[in-house]
Amino acid sequence: MAFEKPYPIFLSLLLALLSHSVAAQDSKKISSGSFLTAGEDGSFWPSSSDDYAFGFKQIEKTNGFLIAIWFNKIPENTIVWSAKHDTSDAVVVPRGSKVEIKPDGWLRLLDIEGSQIWSGGYSGSSEVAYAEMLDTGNFVLFGQGSKRLWQSFDHPTDTILPGQVLNSGGEIVSQYSQNNFSRGNFLFRLQEDGDLVLWTTHYPTIAINFPYWESKVHGDGFSLVFNQTGSIFVQSSNQSIVANVSLNAPSMQDFYQRAIIDYDGVFKHYIYPKGNSSSTGSWPMSWSIHSNIPEDICSAIAEFPGSGACGFNSYCTFEGGMKICHCPYGFIFTDPNDVMKGCKQNFVQQSCDGTSSKAHLFNLTEMQDSCFPRSKYDFFKPVSEDWCRQSCLDDCLCAHVTFIDGACWKDSLPLRNGKIDSSLGGKSLLKIRKDNYSPLNPEIIHVKNDRSKLIIIGSTVLGSSVFLNLFLLVAVCVVVYCFGHNNHREPKVSSFTSSMNLRSFTYGELVEGTNGFTEELGRGAFSTVYKGVLPDIPGNLVAVKKLKMVNESEKEFEAEVSAIGQTHHRNLVQLLGFCNEGEHRLLVYEFMSKGTLASFLFEGKRPSWYQRVQIAIGTAKGLLYLHEECKSQIIHCDIKPQNVLLDDSYTAKISDLGLAKLLKIDQTVTTTAIRGTKGYVAAEWFKNKPITMKVDVYSFGVLLVELICCRKSFDVNVEDENKMVLIDWAYDCFHHRRLDLLVEEDKEAQIDIRSVEEYVKIGIWCVQEDPSARPSMKQVVQMLEGFMDVPNPPNLASFASEC
Length: 803
Description:
Blueprint: H1 6-26, E1 30-31, E2 35-37, E3 44-46, E4 52-58, E5 65-71, E6 79-82, E7 92-93, E8 98-101, E9 106-110, E10 116-121, E11 130-133, E12 139-142, E13 148-151, E14 159-160, E15 165-167, E16 171-177, E17 180-190, E18 196-201, E19 208-214, E20 223-226, E21 232-235, E22 241-246, E23 255-261, E24 267-273, E25 288-293, H2 297-300, E26 315-319, E27 322-326, E28 331-333, E29 343-345, E30 362-366, E31 370-371, E32 376-380, H3 385-394, E33 400-404, E34 407-411, E35 418-420, E36 427-433, H4 442-462, H5 465-488, E37 503-504, H6 507-513, E38 520-523, E39 527-533, E40 541-547, H7 553-565, E41 575-581, E42 584-590, H8 597-602, H9 609-629, E43 633-635, E44 644-646, E45 652-654, E46 661-663, H10 694-709, H11 726-735, H12 747-751, H13 753-766, H14 777-784, H15 797-802
Parallel strand pairs: 26-35, 37-41
Antiparallel strand pairs: 1-11, 2-8, 3-4, 4-5, 5-6, 5-7, 8-9, 9-10, 11-12, 12-13, 14-23, 15-20, 16-17, 17-18, 18-19, 20-21, 21-22, 23-24, 24-25, 26-27, 28-29, 30-36, 31-35, 32-34, 33-34, 33-36, 38-39, 39-40, 40-42, 41-42, 43-46, 44-45
Helix pairs in contact: 9-10, 9-14, 10-13, 11-13
């Protein structure tokens, strides 16, 4: 009996392990009468594995605390449940508040005075023996015999977790925004008849409005299951699967998982890899989307009631699994911190007082591929496009018009359900005041009056018969000279021909249009830019860039025409045409009336904080387009304030792609000679390392900090030499928690000091020496717009010594 002796030893070890396991679980049990205090260290109860925690969670950028459950092992500490009032508002409490487990079966939240703010729990006769934060993410109040008296899984907010079941009639409601945990605009419900439906709500109530997605499964006894294999499905009472929601998720052993009706209205299944959350010194990981419903929220919501996926007078794009709300040209966000409040006109509306429509004060500007379903109030067919345009201009109620194949639809304010849809065809035209300015603007009145005076003076002079005869004589001489001159000298056309849809100008047209290149707008190492007037160009005014014939100027010309000819984006300066005649190489751009960001930022009165933020976001979106969204990926290589121009409404537009390196679709790095401008150039240029799109991220980081501080990146005139290099000074201010010094003369920025901190952190991340540590421009845009959290950046000590 050789096995008899070892067996008692094995049994003893097994019993010891089991008793140790039970003891470990007991150590996480929370006895009745226990409490937590908001703001104190360890003001939470973890699960046995520490994967989840229940307790007080401070809301980012505020002094308020939530009673919540969150993932406890990842940097994001993502919240999966929080207490709500019956009014749908989040339960937000100040520091010093307490939550306690009462023996009578209630979980009670008390303010610092001891008054009850919120309660949840069991109202029966059984007493609570203990509570426990389980490793499933479920917080439970247990009675005698481990009977479950109350559990958070029965009261979900916006999230369901693996192991959680949503029974018939169950629902989860989105939170209002990323940092506002009150109930929001969207609801996910398993109907009594078994249909799984996504609804918009009549915000601020949670009454359902209309469905924008449904499973179309009907019957009795259904439930929504999120099982331990990571699959989400609807099953019937006999446990057969009748509708799949999300399948083929990676292993639960390797990934944390959650499913949420997100604040953008999309039901998303998120995953996050385990075991990598403790790393330091690198860009932190974030949740990845395994699946989402619907695939395009912008197109899914298109009913009449409500504002749509975004607020009224805005339009929606869906990029990278994230909804983004935009204001049309001529509109601004009603509240920049809450895009769901929509947009408002940034100009005086057309009068409907019955005297005069003043149609001459307004223009129709094209919004490519845009539409506003359910905003229409009138329709005409068949009509011409000109008739449709004029009808809208004459109609004070018309804010937008769509013309497709002889059909004309008029839209009134507020514009609803805005989206971009390239399948529509036709033209989408938005009515705005000319130059997007109020007629009360004295600067515009002055310009228009001067122009009127010139017209009157010109008409008077031309009325003189003596002058007219002289003018005709000179004109005849010019025509004869030009005819003879052209017969003797044929222009030598360059071998380079543009394949883009751009207009080819003759050199003579541009000489005439610029009045002999007399009004200079700016100059660089290889070019000079002049102001011009071309009658058949919209708006008439243009900027003509004349390239110098030295070294690589022909290559620069070809690169710029090829690069810009393929691009079209709100935040890029539009190339209208070119001249490639003989030795003359010129580029014709749209005219940017407000000049360069450099002059706007560093000369004259300080721009408003709001303007600077919008310029930063616009520039970032332009770079994102170049890097990831246009046909060929483009590295700009010379991002600086001099190469960001501003239009009438101070919209930022990136210019001067002449130094750009085009990347093939399957290419991510390139090697080239050092380009760009000192002070904005990334370290890899000097180390002969491969150049990626991260060099533009570096330059943008410098520009972002300049926008924050309204100061150049390097200034030898400052009295304190520690402030000469702006990035170093900004980091010092961030490190010592004195960001107020960066904006000490800017009251608007001081009021929004938390945003200043966020943007400084983004800037520091962008200028990290290691390119792989820098965020992508998509991440930068998401952080600037508040869709992604910004972690604290690492030290910049090595940066100052090497750059």
